[in-house]
Here is the input.
Amino acid sequence: MNEGIVKILGIESSCDDTAAAVTRNQLLLSTVIAGQQVHKDYGGVVPELASRAHQQNIVPVVDAALKKAGIKKEELNAIAFTRGPGLMGSLLVGTSFAKAMSMALNIPLIEINHLQAHILAHFIESPGEPYRCPSFPFLCLTVSGGHTQIVMVKAYNDMEIIGQTHDDAAGEAFDKAAKIMGLPYPGGPLVDKFAKEGNPLAFKFPEPKIPGLDFSFSGLKTSFLYLIRDEVAKNESFIAERKLDLCASFQKCVIDVLMHKLKMATKSTGIKEIAIAGGVSANSGLRAVLKDSAEELGWNIYIPKMEYCTDNAAMIAIAGYFKYLNKDFASIDAIPLARYTF
Here is the structure.
């Protein structure tokens, strides 16, 4: 085997998507994702149903990723898997499969922090596309349904959380606002869609007064709920008539909070290499405001491809590659962690 070539199989199963990907060094060879439609009927992810679906999907997904990459499992150098954070049952399926495969092939096992992987997705090389990645150190605003953080990234293996939410994550706030309006799950993308056609100044919401670089979105969600409750009491058609403006105003408030803290972080650190990551980094409003801020403040910004915003195994594989170079391998006794900080 060529010692200069490292082939990693990445496995991601932290929530409701079963994903596998294969990388050769930093080049992505394949990525396969099996989603789960059943959760739409329940308005959110049902953990028990998610873990059962992972059990059904993981073998065909891994097989498809290897075939798409054009390599045999015996050519792999290591197996990288999401250890956490995430849903315990879902994580257990991916962890168990990764352990079994690494033992069968007698190759190293590499545990990955899901949030760090989102950040390292910026270092994936896509075939036939120009490669551009942040320089160290850089700041990454990581925004998803479960987490909202500002991370100072000093190296692939040296990251420090300098700000995070005290309660709801930004993505969770979007989904809850959508649910309050009766929009189907997942609601975040729908809020973004409707916001494009609405007036972002139509409604005002109080911005949370949280010191430092930390966030809070619980109060904003409650304020939105009370507005809907009071207006619907006066006009039953309020949501239908003002849906576009409600989405635009709520989205603007969330983005204003995110950008205010990010600007504070750049000012306090002096760092102008700025990246975003996580599911909410797909939000068109956040992307637009980030680009405007970059022009105004002289930032170098890095926005992930849409397929790397949501949960995927390509980011797990690339994180595994950097750990492989440092021989940072996991024990076969590693257990999944629903809460996994770094």
